[in-house]
Amino acid sequence: RKILTQHGFVDKDLLTYPYEERGLQFGDGIYEVIRIYHGDYYLLTEHVERLFRSAAAIKLTVPYNKEQVYHKLAELLEINDVKGDAKVYLQITRGSAARDHVFPDTEPNFYAYVQDLPRPLTELKNGVSVITQEDERWQNCYIKSLNLLPNILAKQEAKEQNCFEAILHRKEKVTECSSSNVYIVKDGKIYTHPETNNILHGCVRSKVKTLAQNLNIPLIEEAFTLEDLQTADEVFLTSSNAEVMPIISIDHKQVQDGKPGTKTISLQKAYEQDAK
Ligand code: PDD
């Protein structure tokens, strides 16, 4: 497989970076994870727009304009002859330079690679278990930054408790999960945290807003609490990897009857139809 870099395509075993690389030393960069179904990008515009928003937020200049990014990402799939379900990981850092907190005078490092990614069909059908964790991140979670230490610690804790994800909360208010957005259904309405600086503005989240509207399910962008979570009729999460994923247990306590909810299932079906 070939990796896309700012210096053209490079064989995956031949790509190396200097030890003084700002992504490695400072986490000084941004990334995107983009879904591919049947060899085609899904929600690509949303991802590219967010990439440029993240870059601007950390004063990083993307080495390409948007048209060039679209063109290069298309090339990446062609060169690797991608036909099935996959994902692209794309990362831009502030470059390689002698370690100094101040921005260097070098070009950014850009790379993107593609990996096969089957759909999580068993989990989508049966639902997953999650835990809750205090959200210990900074105040700019809308930036898709490489600094993921709080996220990986939360996810690892979930894994150690045999769970799929960790729902994060700032005091009583639920924000999102370690690598996905989270929703409850209560009395026929969907609630999710508004698009503030405290959550990542998920591409699947924005698609779910449209899908809910088409299905005539009201979606209210209002933060809900840990208590609301406990009494919810349904709970689900979304991401490019996990799609629309039912949550059937929280902190080892069943959500309602412990089965994926009906509204969640309708959204799942609508998503699947849209992604086809
Ligand atoms: N994570 N919230 C966080 C903190 C995330 O890291 C992600 C995505 C999402 C969902 O965003 P989207 O719908 O655009 O995938 C929400 C990616 C998949 C990752 O880090 O691997």
UniProtKB/TrEMBL annotation:
SUPFAM superfamilies: D-aminoacid aminotransferase-like PLP-dependent enzymes. It catalyses: D-alanine + 2-oxoglutarate = D-glutamate + pyruvate. Gene3D superfamilies: 3.30.470.10, D-amino Acid Aminotransferase, subunit A, domain 2. GO terms for cellular component: cytosol. It is an enzyme of class 2 (transferase). CDD domains: D-AAT_like. Its EC number is 2.6.1.21. PANTHER family: AMINO-ACID AMINOTRANSFERASE, D-ALANINE AMINOTRANSFERASE. NCBIfam families: D_amino_aminoT. This is D-alanine aminotransferase. It comes from Terrihalobacillus insolitus. The lineage of its organism: Bacteria, Bacillati, Bacillota, Bacilli, Bacillales.
